[in-house]
């Protein structure tokens, strides 16, 4: 005989399926005449026949709709799928009586069935809030319920058959080759474990490991350098060599996720400021891609003795400069720019077309003329096609460039009308226009101005995650550099997730910037993640890696695991159990639950919130806490950050198809993990992770 737990679950499923089969057909005879009457009333109301009393007919329609809703609410069994009627089982004891309750995706409480929808049934809070053997005291449906959770189990049912049971007594799986048809997979549930609080804490920097910046804890043997002990204690020799690279010009740092690119870039500023204190001032700028990184860097630099350095996101900086240089243009920015328009504006073709326009068309060195240059280029399909043919053959078709120009002709009509005094005219600019307008100013007028006629002259520039900037955006920044300035660019082509940014390769990137031949220094040790995580993240990239050498990974760790579920509610329950245990065992750990879309983040956060997990937050607009606890957000919000544990949810074929963009997104999500990485899938797992199906 199988284990007692398995036998009980097999018997329960048999009873549930039998009772579902005995229920009346989903479309009852009482429902059909009401549906026909509703159709008739709707037809009469829409006919517009003035001889009819429309208000009376409308009232009849609403009354019949209410009756139909009542009938259907009592027939929810029709929405219970017999192939997978529930995913969890509770046995509760109240007043010395026991009863079984199942959780699924629909509610059916009739004919001896007690199946409730996990998302909104009040009693489901007992499942999510209590463990087996615990006593509960909850107000449900207006009355107090007290009792004991006798059994709390997760089950997997496929095609109407039970093939997995997870309970405190053990984890059991169907196995036809086993003597009793079932085998015990594990005596205990899977656990998150292995490290506490080692993820970066930007708001609580301590000493040693607590000040870890993604760059590792190497650097042994470098303590003899007395000038920067607080820096050299945290880095390895190759990082130290790049940090102490002094003098004007470019330092370009490439490295895998967790290899310390940001560490080197920020510490280099501190090193340069030691010899030249003026570096710690507003003439030094650290430009980052996201607000999360901006906040992080803003708390790290003071720990390195830097108090006055500018820390900006490119978008905020460019918007500020555009307002200063083109004050008459509208402040509103469009949020629904077509992808084709974004792609062309961020491509070097647009900048090159601006250069040709300025060279061919004489004009005063005034901002008004620079604006005219921009407006002329974005609606000149012939100039764009000519430039594309010379600079990037095949990048865009003639039809695409014509659509781009036609779209701008229509949009510029509204802009010109607004500038002419029509306040009601639609007048918006794309965020991508800021870089083009600023570049037009530089080409036509000269240097950007800090105030009055004083030019912006930066002494040092750091650009992090440079692979997600367009060459035009970087060119605008380079145009703000002083003659003896030093520049640090840090990036990783495999973390390129902004598909329209225009970055293709380091060689092409530097060619478009006009600095072909620039050397790229590579960091070859990945400190952040364990070897299994690094191996998985590289396997996800597949052919995108090409011949790139694998980084050295000094730390071992638990395997990457993928867990499959038949329902999102089951996944939420599984994660809640694991996270609750982790919060008890490692209260200082940081966890990221990363999703492919905002709607999925909303769903998981709502479900886990119902489980009353401590310190759970949903991150919107990159507002990370940089503290311990659980944060739920989308993968595209976490570039540059790290967490003790990462759980990638809904890693299915629909959200992660076989595309380079999906591969890179998964790679970025995976490499945020320091100690352990889990993946979950409710639908069919993506082929990108198929080789790592552990469960």
- Overall pLDDT: 83
Low-confidence runs of at least 5 consecutive residues: 201-234
Radius of gyration, in angstroms, nearest whole number = 31 Å
Largest sheet: 8 strands, mixed
The coarse silhouette is globular
Question: Can you walk me through this structure?
Answer:
This protein is α/β, with parallel strands linked by helices and 695 residues long. The model is unreliable at 201-234 (pLDDT under 50). Helix 9 crosses helix 15. 40% of the residues are buried. The radius of gyration is 31 Å and the shape is globular. The strands form four sheets. Strands 1, 2, 3, 4, 5, 6, 7 and 8 form an eight-stranded mixed β-sheet that branches. A six-stranded parallel β-sheet has the order 11-10-14-15-9-16. It has a six-stranded parallel β-sheet with strand order 17-22-21-18-20-19, sandwiched between helices. The protein is 37% helix and 19% strand.
Summarize the structure.
It is built from 21 helices and 22 strands.
